[in-house]
UniProtKB/TrEMBL annotation:
It comes from Guillardia theta (strain CCMP2712). This is protein-L-isoaspartate(D-aspartate) O-methyltransferase. It holds the Pfam family PCMT. GO terms for molecular function: protein-L-isoaspartate (D-aspartate) O-methyltransferase activity. Belongs to the methyltransferase superfamily. L-isoaspartyl/D-aspartyl protein methyltransferase family. It is found in: Cytoplasm.
Length: 260
């Protein structure tokens, strides 16, 4: 289903997602048409699969973005407040900002400082600088697991990476009547819809099974990248050692054969 939604253009991608009934809300369509993915995803922007964006971070597949926006659509109305945890290159936060309008506010929080700056540049390149100027779209560097309390409480919260359990801080910052969409689990993950009733009670249900990268802090990501580079170096060293051994074996064989 998801792979068949890929296209060669943003319009084609959105049309395919709608035809596949990944989303049904017309406001989701308008938001995704208004935010061209090519400005936020440098590689294969219209391919319906996750893509690497650097710093050991990926941007979610378009069908997941569409699914999450559709689940949050009734809570992303003009005047609403929205929080995007793990905002990455800023794509989904920009979509949320369009849906909540100038009277609302969409806050993106990302723990990689370079991605925060890149997301701001992406939003400007997409012609959405007016959202930043009006403060209806704000990009912040921070630990998204703690939320951003000073701009809350939020009508809608989206989390773009998997947590072992639902962070209590995000539940606390969810407005009564609000909705949180978050992938939860380690190896086996579920995309959960968490609703807070007007009297503060929490109700949750599973939307679908998913596979997301883990929600982490900067140190975790840096360590992962560092370990990857170390592994690559060790592999290169092993290859060189193998070449040396093969060369020595070949040389010894030649010398040995010359004496026979």
């Amino acid at each position: 289903m998801a792979w068949s939604c890929s296209s060669s253009s943003n319009k084609g991608l959105v049309s395919n997602l709608e035809n596949a009934r990944i989303f049904q809300n017309s406001r989701v369509r308008e938001a995704m048409l208004g935010v061209d993915r090519k400005h936020y995803c440098p590689r294969n922007p219209y391919q319906d699969s996750p893509q690497l964006i650097g710093y050991n971070v990926t941007i979610s597949a378009p069908h997941m973005h569409a699914m999450c926006l559709d689940a949050l659509a009734d809570h992303l109305k003009p005047g609403s407040k929205a929080l995007d945890v793990g905002s990455g290159t800023g794509y989904l936060t920009a979509c949320m900002a369009i849906m909540v309008g100038f009277s609302g506010k969409a806050v993106g929080v990302e723990h990689v400082p370079q991605l925060v700056q890149q997301s701001i540049s992406n939003i400007k390149a997409d012609g959405k600088e007016y959202l930043l100027d009006s403060k209806s779209l704000i990009m912040i560097e921070g630990d998204g697991r703690k939320g951003i309390a000073e701009h809350g409480p939020y009508d809608a919260i989206h989390v773009g990476a998997a947590a072992p359990t639902i962070p209590q801080s995000l539940i606390d910052q969810l407005k009564p009547g609000g909705r949180l969409i978050i992938p939860v689990g380690n190896i086996m993950q579920e995309l959960l819809q968490v609703d807070k009733s007007l009297d503060g009670n929490i109700k949750q249900k599973s939307i679908t099974s998913v596979r997301y990268v883990p929600l982490s802090e900067l140190l975790d990501s840096c360590c992962a990248v560092s370990n990857l580079y170390k592994l690559i170096s060790r592999i290169k060293w092993a290859i060189e050692q193998d070449k040396i051994r093969n060369h020595m074996f070949h040389t010894c064989s030649v010398i040995s054969s010359s004496y026979t």
